[in-house]
Amino acid sequence: MLKLYIVRHGETEWNKVNRIQGRLDSHLSDKGREYARRLGEKIKDTEFAGIISSPSDRALETAKILRGSRTTPIGTDERIMEMHLGSWQGLTTKEIKEHYPAEYDSFMNEPNLFLGGDGESFADMLERANGFLEELKKSELTGNLLVVTHGLFIKILYLIFKEIELKDLWTEPTVDGTSLSIVKWENKRFELLVESDMSHVAE
């Protein structure tokens, strides 16, 4: 049996001001690091057969905090990077709405029809997510695998795990920074056990 512990990176400075990162990057905020430390404490006794992170600095920094005192190497995989958002990257959500109103409307309300402009479509993301999961299925890896990635990529993974259509991408739950989802691969099927859990920061 393989169990995936899927975590979104911690909050970044750009997240705080609603500035779109995509393949660009900004540093984790103090809150992002603190939340990662709290999640790390929660899972400190979980043994991981491996750790895979998006190559983006914000994901790698989160992965290192979560690893804690373990000596497990952190591998990277470009297939689990955030959506490439082309000309939107570096802009705030407000600026995107102003300059790309029709495209933004499609992005939010008809994700199955969003073409991606000079970046990726959601269909492109779905293809690479399936490729990543298919490789895991064919591997002989067992035990627990920590996967540190991005919010939109996790939403795409939910589509696969729940067997729902791309048009329903934006259904709940939201994927907050350092949220934890756990999915089991056993008997040739995925079972979502924990979905976007933030109990490590509950007051």
Structure description:
- The chain has about 200 residues and is an alpha/beta fold.
- The protein has one domain (about 1-200): Phosphoglycerate mutase-like (Rossmann fold).
- Helices cover about 35% and strands about 20% of the residues.
- It is built from seven helices and six strands.
- The protein has helices at about 15, 30-40, 55-65, 95-100, 100-110, 120-140, 150-160; strands at about 1-10, 50-55, 75, 145-150, 180-185, 190-195.
- A six-stranded mixed β-sheet has the order 3-2-4-1-5-6, sandwiched between helices.
- Strand 5 (about 180-185) and strand 6 form a beta hairpin.
- The N and C termini lie far apart (about 35 Å).
- About 35% of the residues are buried.
- Keywords: Glycolysis, Isomerase.
- This is Histidine phosphatase family protein.
- It comes from Niallia endozanthoxylica.
- InterPro entries: His_Pase_superF_clade-1, His_PPase_superfam, PG/BPGM_mutase_AS, PGM_Phosphatase.
- One of its GO terms (molecular function) is phosphatase activity.
Counted beta strands:
6
How large a portion of the residues is in β-strands, by DSSP E? 15-25%
End-to-end CA span: 34 Å
CATH-scheme architecture: 3-Layer(aba) Sandwich
Name the CATH class.
Alpha Beta
CA gyration radius, whole angstroms: 16 Å
Full CATH superfamily name: Phosphoglycerate mutase-like
Helix content: 25-40%
Largest sheet: 6 strands, mixed
